Amino acid sequence: MNHASSSGSGRSQYRIGDITRLTGLSADTVRYYEKIELLPPIHRTASGIRLYDERDLSRLCFILRAKAMNFSLDEVARLLEMREDPQHARDEVRELTQQKLQEVERHLADLETLRRELTLLVNLCRGAEGGCPIIEDLEG
């Protein structure tokens, strides 16, 4: 890993290239997260190079995990606020997560309906002698 220690503090500092390698995010996405304040203002050298620390890296990993759980960026921002005081935010975190679970369950039900419809269309197509039942169904 290519990182330098900040002067005097002994804390690891990462350039944006290090962050992209460690997280898999693009540099544009990392800068965007800073712009929309999912990341606090990033320390910069005198020449303007961004230097990220372990806390920034941890925050980015948190964002990635929340996005993987299908939380929107607005929801991620709320979760990040709650992350600062998890004991007092526990009920709110649980409620937000419950809402996300219900949303996922609705999507699963929609996908199950879609799966049944597509299976029916494929089976109709196999048994059809003329035309295309799939195209006919899509045409209404």
From TrEMBL:
Gene3D superfamilies in UniProt: 1.10.1660.10
Coiled coil (residue ranges): 94-121
UniProt keyword list: Coiled coil, DNA-binding, Transcription, Transcription regulation
GO molecular function: DNA binding; DNA-binding transcription factor activity
Ranges where the HTH merR-type domain occurs: 13-82
InterPro entries xref list: DNA-bd_dom_put_sf (IPR009061), MerR-type_HTH_dom (IPR000551), MerR_fam (IPR047057), Tscrpt_reg_MerR_DNA-bd (IPR015358)
Superkingdom as given in the UniProt entry: Bacteria
Name assigned to this protein: DNA-binding transcriptional regulator, MerR family
